[in-house]
Amino acid sequence: MDNKRIPILNNLLSQIEENIPHKEQKKPSISKTNVGWQLDHTLKVINGVCGIMIKTNPNKYKKDFNMIRTVLFPLCYIPRGKARAPKMVLPPDIILEEDLLNQLQKARNHITKVKPLPQKSHFKHHVFGMLTKQQTLRFLEIHTKHHLKIVNDILKH
């Protein structure tokens, strides 16, 4: 099941790459932040989450029920403006194209490393709870689509 998520995530990474040239674009009616912030944050999340999942011990996975996850994951939806990003995934004040490209390459490498991991490789999300590999890849898809939609809305004229 997660094997279909890998190409989806790679496609989303390509969309991030296509938007890097527009990193300075901003539309305050859509977001207080610019395109570069959205891209940088998304890449930090992908790299952080994958890095954690790669290091987890699958034997320590504990299944849990999470109502918010049960509702939002099938909808592929995260409401705007309802959550605050943890400090570790906040972009710097100045976002350089070179930094975005480096993070993008790192994200592609992480996705490749995640593919062969066991299903009980996991990530614990502060809202969605304990996520299996499949659920983690779904979260990354939903989260990335959420921020790319904001980028697309900023870029609409």
Element-level helix/strand string? HHHHEEH
**For this structure, what is the CATH class?**
Mainly Alpha
As laid out across the biggest beta sheet, the strand order is: 1-2
Structural class of the helices, strands and pairings? mainly alpha
**How many E-type strands?**
2
What does this protein structure show overall?
With 157 residues, the protein is mainly alpha-helical. The chain has a single domain, classed as Four Helix Bundle (Hemerythrin (Met), subunit A) (Up-down Bundle), CATH 1.20.120. It has 5 helices and 2 strands; from the N terminus they run ααααββα. Strands 1-2 form a two-stranded antiparallel sheet. Helix 2 runs parallel beside helix 4. The longest helix has 23 residues. The mean pLDDT is 94.
Describe this protein with a few key phrases.
two-stranded antiparallel sheet; 157 residues; 5 helices; 55% helix; mainly alpha; Four Helix Bundle (Hemerythrin (Met), subunit A)
Topology of helices and strands:
Layout: H1 5-19, H2 35-55, H3 67-75, H4 97-114, E1 122-125, E2 129-132, H5 133-155
Antiparallel strand pairs: 1-2
Helix pairs in contact: 1-4, 1-5, 2-4, 2-5
Organism: Flaviramulus aquimarinus
Protein name: DUF1569 domain-containing protein
InterPro entries: DinB/YfiT-like
Short recap of the structure:
By secondary structure, the protein is mainly alpha-helical. It has helices at residues 5-19, 35-55, 67-75, 97-114, 133-155; strands at 122-125, 129-132.
